[in-house]
Structure formats: structure tokens, C-alpha cells
Description:
Blueprint: E1 3-9, E2 18-21, H1 37-47, E3 77-85, E4 97-105, E5 110-114, E6 117-119, H2 121-131, H3 145-151, H4 154-165, H5 168-179
Antiparallel strand pairs: 1-2, 1-3, 3-4, 4-5, 5-6
The structure holds adenosine-5'-triphosphate and magnesium ion.
Subunit structure: Homodimer.
Organism: Lactobacillus intestinalis DSM 6629
Function: Required for chromosome condensation and partitioning.
Amino acid sequence: MPLTELIIDGFKSFADKTTIHFDQGITGIVGPNGSGKSNITEAIRWAMGESRAKSLRGSSMKDVIFAGSELRKPLNRAEVTLVFDNHNHELKFDNEKVAVTRRILHSGDSDYLINNQSVRLKDIRTLFLDSGISQNSLAIISQGRVDQILNSRPEERRIIFEEAAGVLHFKEQKEIAQNE
Ligand code: ATP
Ligand code: MG
């Protein structure tokens, strides 16, 4: 289920709408310090439902909105879209392409869309858990994450292994069912 396109608009340093195309194989993103490489992986995790501002290096979720620069006024909204190639129907949608969008307004309200239809965060989580990639999974290893895994408490490390083994998905489903 390849990620083929990432559209970032108003997220962190990306004040202008920017589309990044991922071709087959490995994509390398290079650039000087502070040029926005980590912001790209954060945009992906954010669109996948990341809810901890701290894990996106902010103190509140609104910090992901472009905060202005010497030459540009701050923006009042941020939007990120991930486009997946779904021709193998690995995601439970009939569409050949599945677009997942997250938006946040200055008020702090976030909303999510799948193929331009409004959905709940729960639907986003389910979509990615079913596909085996969630925003915490080892599919994305950020700067410092290796140290964090090595230094984590046994209980925390267990969660990482459960996720990699695909058990976490069933645990979450059980929890959802118990809460309903
Ligand atoms: P390094 O090579 O040091 O890891 P990097 O390419 O990963 O650098 P990032 O950490 O992605 O760089 O980008 C940091 C830049 O993003 C900083 O210049 C910071 O000011 C800018 N930035 C972060 N949040 C915002 C925001 N909300 N609004 C505007 N700019 C932001
Ligand atoms: Mg970085």
C-alpha cells in the first residue's frame, strides 16, 4: 500500500502548498539543518492521527500551524493529505487511490477526511491499524527514536513489540468493543 503523494499546506515550515511525489523504491530527502526534513515525517504522522503535541515538538496541537516568518504572516489553518495507491485493495476501500486528510484551525479544532468525506479519528486509526501501519509503529522511525526504544521501560517496550507483531490491533479493537 505505497504512499504515493504527500500534500502539505500550512503545516509547520510549509507555508505554501507543497506536493511531494514518492516513486517506487526508496526516496531520500536531503537538506540543510532546519530546512524541514523532520517536519515532513511529522506531517505524515500528524495526518495519521498523532494526538500528542509533544511528539510533534510542540506544546499544543495548534503549534503545527505555520507560525509566520520574517517575510510571511502566520496562517490560521494547516492541512496535510496522504494519498495511498490502493490498487491492490489493501485498504478496505473500492477506490484505486485513498486520500487521508487532516485539517486544523486556529481554534484547535481538527477534522479528518477520507476521500473528501468527513470521518472520525477512530476511522483513521482503524484504517491504519488494519493495514499494519499506525502513527506509533516502527514504520516511522524518527530522530532519537532508537535511543528512546533502548531506554524505554519494559512495559513501554512491550507495546512496541506487540505492535510489530500485529497484536496491538486486536487489543485496541477489544478495548473499543468493551467501551461501547
Ligand atoms: P535537522 O537536519 O537539524 O534535523 P530538519 O531538516 O529536520 O533539520 P526540521 O526540524 O524539520 O528541520 O525543521 C525545523 C524548522 O521548522 C525550523 O526552522 C522551525 O522554525 C520551523 N518550524 C517548526 N514549526 C514551525 C511553525 N509552526 N511555523 C513555522 N516554522 C516552523
Ligand atoms: Mg530533523
